[in-house]
Structure to design on (397 residues):
């Protein structure tokens, strides 16, 4: 989930797919002299020396035409908030409004980028084109041709410079919170949403992170908490599935720090500062308010689904208000004005990158709409918001 995502953007027939094939070292993307061969964003895996595994996203031409072309352009633009960096491909010294618009969008979402002047074997980049680019950006401009030998190294060198380290480094879930030999109690309910025969990703990552921090990890179901505590072992930290906050907070003594898996991920990947500010807005919701619930993966829905059933029901009960809910799965477009919502609650985001999560929430933050995440919202409604966030206060991410 920590693979950096690199978007390839530009006009039709500028050689975006050829560039990807060279970087990947395989003919994965369809290459044709016919403009508009790439119709939808397509992801491809690649290994970049010095960074590791990464995802390249091939996009449709930003100059596509017709009604279908407009839809393709829309899909291309939706990629920008989700990438960690971008490559803008131009060719034959064509640099105009399409490229300027892309650069403005890169800047809007804090996406670092480089400019690649492709097909340089046919026409070298001119000083006039360079000047136009530098008027609006200080991005590196690279001459490039798919017919050259090893010229891709110039591109990968530049990518290593601009990709934020947070996109590929693996930050610790519990770094700065637990010490070597500390006992960490992980409480993992097993309900109809739990995958058969295995644990969900946040639980697996938590176990590994405790071990990486030289801690001692103990895993129990919520029904075994009392049996464990009777053994006289006092953990340095207890972490529970947020759905069990109500029960677990009553069973875990107050002198044992308690938080939730979703809260941990909020600190690791999400906009923790704005989550902290936005969560108390739950108490200010009014009749008729709309609440947007954002999932970051797609999955089969059951009656135990937290985002679609449990969370809305808890919000209705806690506020006593008549609220309207909209759920958007995966990284799908919200498809309406974000200002239509009184509040947004994001899942833990274990299946997406920090950049994708930040890009998804940015329109709401910019519009001043309160944001929260599942774990923090549930902690707040259970009256343990301060307790669940206490382990992370004054700890740098």
């Amino acid at each position: 989930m920590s693979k950096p995502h690199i978007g390839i953007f530009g006009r039709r027939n500028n050689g975006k797919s050829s560039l990807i094939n060279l970087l990947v070292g395989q003919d994965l993307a369809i290459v044709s002299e016919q403009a508009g061969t790439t119709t939808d964003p397509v992801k491809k895996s690649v290994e970049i020396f010095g960074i590791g595994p990464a995802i390249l996203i091939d996009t449709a031409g930003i100059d596509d035409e017709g009604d279908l072309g407009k839809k393709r352009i829309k899909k291309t633009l939706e990629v920008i908030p989700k990438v960690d960096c971008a490559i803008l491909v131009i060719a034959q010294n064509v640099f105009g409004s399409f490229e300027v618009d892309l650069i403005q969008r890169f800047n809007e979402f804090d996406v670092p980028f480089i400019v690649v002047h492709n097909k340089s074997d046919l026409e070298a980049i001119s000083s006039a084109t360079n000047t136009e680019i530098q008027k609006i950006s200080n991005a590196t401009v690279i001459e490039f041709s798919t017919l050259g030998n090893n010229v891709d190294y110039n591109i990968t060198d530049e990518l290593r410079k601009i990709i934020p380290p947070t996109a590929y480094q693996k930050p610790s879930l519990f770094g700065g919170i637990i010490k070597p030999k500390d006992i960490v109690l992980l409480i993992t309910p097993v309900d109809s949403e739990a995958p058969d025969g295995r644990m969900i990703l946040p639980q697996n990552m938590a176990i590994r992170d405790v071990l990486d921090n030289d801690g001692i990890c103990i895993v129990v179901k919520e029904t075994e908490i009392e049996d464990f505590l009777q053994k006289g072992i006092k953990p340095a930290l207890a972490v529970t599935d947020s759905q069990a906050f109500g029960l677990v907070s009553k069973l875990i003594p107050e002198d044992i720090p308690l938080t939730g898996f979703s809260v941990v991920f909020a600190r690791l990947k999400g906009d923790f500062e704005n989550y902290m500010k936005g969560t108390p807005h739950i108490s200010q919701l009014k009749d008729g308010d709309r609440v947007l619930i954002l999932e970051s993966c797609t999955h089969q829905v059951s009656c135990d689904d937290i985002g679609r059933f449990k969370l809305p029901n808890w919000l209705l009960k806690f506020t006593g208000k008549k609220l309207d809910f909209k759920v958007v799965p995966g990284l799908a477009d919200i498809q309406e004005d974000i200002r239509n919502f009184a509040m947004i609650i994001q899942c833990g985001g274990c299946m997406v990158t920090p950049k994708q999560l930040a890009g998804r929430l940015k329109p709401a933050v910019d519009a001043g709409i309160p944001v929260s995440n599942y774990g923090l919202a549930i902690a707040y409604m259970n009256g343990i918001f301060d307790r669940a966030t206490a382990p992370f206060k004054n700890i740098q991410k």
User: Anything to note?
Assistant: Residues 5-167 form a domain with the Rossmann fold fold (CATH 3.40.50.300). The first helix runs from residue 16 to 24. Confidence is low (pLDDT under 50) at residues 26-38, 299-303.
